[in-house]
Amino acid sequence: MPQLNPNPWFFIMLASWLTFSLIIQPKLLAFTTTNPPSNKTHAPRKTSPWTWPWT
After folding, report:
1. For 9-29, what is each residue's pLDDT tens digit?
2. Global confidence as pTM
């Protein structure tokens, strides 16, 4: 059964995960967010109940 032979596919999977985790991921994590979260407390808005036209 050739599909059970892990010889070529395991190396491809291992190389792709190593490339991602060692090269691509640190570059992606180095970016700063364009809209960082703020520490402001937001006041709750006054909401009015919705009036349904069929009730």
Report:
1. 889 999 999 998 899 888 888
2. 0.46
